[in-house]
Amino acid sequence: MTFSPLVQARLDAWVASAADFGPHLLGQDTAITLDAQRHAYEQVLAAHPIPAGVTPHDIDMGGVPGKVVVPDTVEGDRILLYIHGGGYVGGSPTGYLGLAGHFATRLRARVYLPDYRLAPEHPFPAPLDDTLAAYRWLLQQGHDPASIVFAGDSAGGAMVVSVMVKARNAGLPLPAGGAALSPWANLTHTGASIDTRDGLDPQASRQGLTLLAKAFLNGALPTDPDASPVFADVRGLPPILVQIGENEVMLSDAMRLATHLGENRVRVSLEVWPGMFHVWHLFAAILPEGLQAVENAVRFLDQAMGSTPPVE
Questions:
Q1: Cβ contacts of residue 113 below 8 Å, gap of 6+?
Q2: Which is the CATH superfamily of the domain at 5-304?
Q3: Domain residues of the chain, as ranges?
Q4: Is the predicted pLDDT of residue 120 greater than 90, yes or no?
Q5: Catalytic residues, which ones?
Q6: End-to-end CA gap in the chain
Q7: In sequence order, what are the residues at sequence separation of 6 or more whose Cβ sits closer than 8 angstroms to the Cβ of residue 75?
Q8: 3-state helix, strand and coil shares in percent for the chain, rounded to the nearest 5
Q9: How would residue 101 be classed by pLDDT, with cut points 50, 70 and 90?
Q10: Is the pTM of this model over 0.90?
Q11: What is the pLDDT of residue 308?
């Protein structure tokens, strides 16, 4: 698929910045520190503009720092807990304010983005523990779980499911639903697309994902159900939407996740988007398919909360 020059330029910049994590994960000498590389990656993502009508604020979510994006119009006590991607090694709420803003305005909800700890300094299960703590904090503030939904991309897409499982196991009430965008759902990388789509997906590759998984797992098994939700006991979870790009190396395992959810009586919807790359949603301001995917996710989450979004 051919993209506009602006989309292609931002995609190329994102791919290059993500690749710059490789030397750090391989223990090679680098010109900048890992924290500086994370900041550079954050700035690439922050180039996606924040839509009008939203205001971001810093927030402490029970000891987990983060951001909250507040739209001009909020319906009731609606909340989206958004779990950013970045392979558990990079990414931050600051780089996701644009995407969060699109969700906030269309869902008419406050969007909370926990700034969970990152590997390799804080490997598995630290990111999941932090995200669960942020959700627990939302509940402790008196928010009705029926007015809370989850969404996340890549590593965060997997955590949409994994954190729900951890919440259920901890005896917490579950949110109304979730949207897993381009989820990195199987760290064993056994799906056929890890090979058949390698090279088609510009943003994610078998080699890169193998490095990221090693840094994140830190000796834990890739089959651990908290790391790879395709192996998790998902019974009793609320409705979940899985969206995946047809060009993605994660395609097969995202489809496996949807099948696993459905076979365990979780209401699931699967969308496969032809020609799309990993987390194309980030380009919602300049890529029509990105905005359409976000709007589809909003409709799903709206329905999960028992509401119908207004026609724009």
A1: 66, 67, 68, 69, 82, 83, 84, 93, 96, 100
A2: Alpha/Beta hydrolase fold, catalytic domain (3.40.50.1820)
A3: 5-304
A4: yes
A5: 154, 248, 278
A6: 28
A7: 108, 109, 307
A8: 45, 15, 40
A9: very high
A10: yes
A11: 47
